[in-house]
Amino acid sequence: RTHYEYARRFSEHFGKTIPGIFTDEPQNYNGFPWSRLFQKKFEEEFGYNPLDKAYLLVLDREGYIEYRVNYYRLCEEMMNHAFYRPLSRFCEAHNLILTGHLGMEERITQMAVNHGGIYSHLKVFQMPGIDALGVGDGLTPGLANMEAPNFSVKAVSSIAHLQGKNRVLCE
């Protein structure tokens, strides 16, 4: 609703004074997303109640890899369906650029937990981006949480390239 209110008030400025919409660090924030809809979709897709094996999100027991892959893949798809794709379609329909970056995209070990994956999210941005917080010299990390200082730069430029986009953003 927020963006449609912007359109109602400011649409004459879209694509000009207001070139786009910037989204800053959407993510699951190290949590375990859950809803009745998530449970229903999980049961439909994988054939069992995810609550029966929810302990596998935190314990490395038999079947934990498959369960986590399924869990985070569904989280990723539901986030795309509910947030990224509608926002991208809104921007396309209103002559706007969707840009911004995901949260913690520089931490490879957190990608599954925070996003499921980054490609499916960033590919719908008209100008995908990253947040380069003190990346140092490209060989050594600038901040303690930069596990691979060049990873997010390479990832976002590759995603843009694969989607035929010629611009990326660096906040």
What is the count of β-strands? 4
N-to-C CA distance: 26 Å
Which residues sit in consecutive blocks of at least 5 with pLDDT less than 50?
none
Radius of gyration: 18 Å
Overall 3D shape: globular
Count of separate DSSP helical elements: 6
List strands and helices in order, with pairings.
Blueprint: H1 2-10, E1 20-24, H2 36-46, H3 64-93, E2 97-101, H4 111-115, H5 119-122, E3 127-130, H6 151-162, E4 169-170
Parallel strand pairs: 1-2, 2-3, 3-4
Task: Considering the chains and any ligands shown, give keywords for the structure.
6 helices; 42% helix; alpha/beta; four-stranded parallel beta sheet; 4 strands; 171 residues
How would you sum up this structure, described in words?
By secondary structure, the chain is of the alpha/beta class. Helix content is 42%, strand content 9%. It contains 6 helices and 4 strands, in the order H-E-H-H-E-H-H-E-H-E. The protein has a 4-stranded parallel beta sheet with strand order 1-2-3-4. Helix 6 links the parallel strand 3 (127-130) and strand 4 (169-170). Helix 2 crosses helix 3 (64-93). The radius of gyration is 18 Å and the shape is globular. The protein starts with a helix and ends with a strand. The model has no long low-confidence stretch (mean pLDDT 90).
